[in-house]
Description:
The protein is built from 14 helices and six strands. By secondary structure, the chain is α/β, with parallel strands linked by helices.
Amino acid sequence: MTLEDDLKNLCEKIRPIDKKIYGASQSRWDSIAKPLGGLGRFEKIVSRLAACQKNLFPQIKPAALAVFCADNGIVAEGVSQTDSSVTKVVAENLSLGKASSCKIAAVVGADLFPVDAGIKEPVSSEKIADLHVRRGTCNFLRERAMSRSECAQTILRGAEFAKSLSKKGYKILLTGEMGIGNTTTSSAVLAALTGLDPAILTGKGAGLSDAGLAHKIEVIKKSLAFHKIDSLDVLDVLSAVGGLDIAMMTGFFLGGADSSLPLVVDGFISSVAALCASRLSPAATDYFFASHSSTEGGCKIALKEMGLDAVIFADMHLGEGTGGLMLLPLLESSLAVYKEMPTFEDIKIEAYKKL
């Protein structure tokens, strides 16, 4: 058995969500003493949570956020405002509880797990899960980002990490990332998967100038032309122009889906990883929940490719899983109505009818 065989077996194991429980959950919503469909899309979201977990009354506590940190060799081409050293600094802050996502996680009651998916300079902290296969990627303008076997191994390690969190009792998994240059890798992967012009998929990341953005787009275009990627082969795409954080998140999405857990998509990088997982195993998409629509234009396109609709539109682009964390209180509030409200029968009044 090769690594690719293991990955194929994982993808084939994933089953669609339980449609019977989804239907029963929708009936539960209709029985609650409130206007039909009064909570709009949140009613369908709760029903999907139920169908994912195969439980009419789903839970989202405890919740776990995995933040995948990795460096990208493409930074050598000047596609980012800062150099790769920042990745290590932020990873250290994540391990010390000092990063933005740490503060939000503490408020919303989620456990945060920093993951070394391939940081160039290793971080010495027991609070970081060291899952790296290699220390950063190569500069994909000059050579492939990683080998095909390294890519498959990175995906599988992400899947195993999701499964380990499931075994610890977590009911919902959130995805986040941190890595200088990863909006460039995400745009390149999305362009390779969709065949769309990088110009409409690529944004300014952490704050490029107009000239910097133009250079970034040109680097992506030249890289795609250089590699002649097979758009139908996700491993070819990721190993040619991807990032280790994207690859490991791809596996995390697959492993979570195989564990029947709902998975929250964060922003642009996370949405591209989810799309990779969706292409590898279409059934896995049933378990994905889009938290917000990033200011990066490619995010909306990646979500559309999967048929997902974001909930939060707040011009966020911080990363680290912050969008997913912001979604949790909205889900918790919706679940309180779903689980605790009396039904029409309970209060002995005639139920609303669908006309």
